[in-house]
Fold:
Amino acid sequence: METTAKKGDLISFRPDIKVLDATLRDGGLVNNFRFTDEFVKDLYQANIKAGVDYMEFGYKASKDVFKKEDFGKWKFCEEEDIRAIVGDNDSDLKIAVMSDVGRTDYKRDIIDRKDSVIDMIRTATYIHQIPTAIEMIEDAKEKGYETTVNIMAISKVNDEDLNNGLELLGQSGVDYIYLVDSFGSFYPEQIKKLSDKFLNIGAKYNKTIGMHAHNNQQLAFANTIEALSYGVSLLDATVSGMGRGAGNCYMESLLGFLRNPKYSLTPIMDFVEKHILKLKAAGAIWGYDIPYLLTGILNSHPSSAIQFIKEGRSDYTAYMHQLIDEN
Structure:
């Protein structure tokens, strides 16, 4: 039975809503995390001025799994590299990093919160990895961090497995449970039903629910505000939607929509003018395109669409049939 109802209206603001900037982490998948220090410092300052609540600096990836020379520093988020940007972070903005199940040496590379400038550890997991994800979450909690869990590819998960996974996470120490539309395949009506499911678990176990959307069908912003309208309250976005493939919910759209006077769009627009336009002019590619639309419609991983665009192909119908055959 559904228990959710609309929270607030279009001209009010909800003080429970918080915004997380995932530009360096999701956007880092576009350029292998090779951002200049000026880009990162300016983004940090823009987020502070814009009133953004959290800034995700990248991944805590294991150097045993990934070669350091193949990526920029934000794939690994070393403590000294973050401190070189933020100092002791004398601001209201909180610092987050992502740890992937099976790709993070969390016992070695995530130090105690008292010794770190990081505030939040986000754990990304597939449904079958949830027991390991819970171990990672409990480790981060013991070390003193705020924690989130992002269950990826739930559009491929059956209801029973998702319900069981949410129950396990509800019983864990995690603070935030994310609804993630990994393939950009959901429509607002589906987001409403999923929000209801996640919020019920949140109410049962005193967890806050987050939303992380992808833009394959140009619905990342629509799905984000649909989720927030029912009570989902930690919202991910990236500047100009920068992220792998079709990208994410636009920070510009989200801040323009939210009515909380603490948020300001101007610093983000200034950052776009100074940095994002240059990045695109230099050849960085992300954002809505027909191949991503097709993967969204067919609930497929975007990797083949990324390759399709890299190859400069335009045989969209043949590609659609290829995806149908693979499904």
Remarks:
- Residues 18-281 form a domain with the TIM Barrel fold (CATH 3.20.20.70).
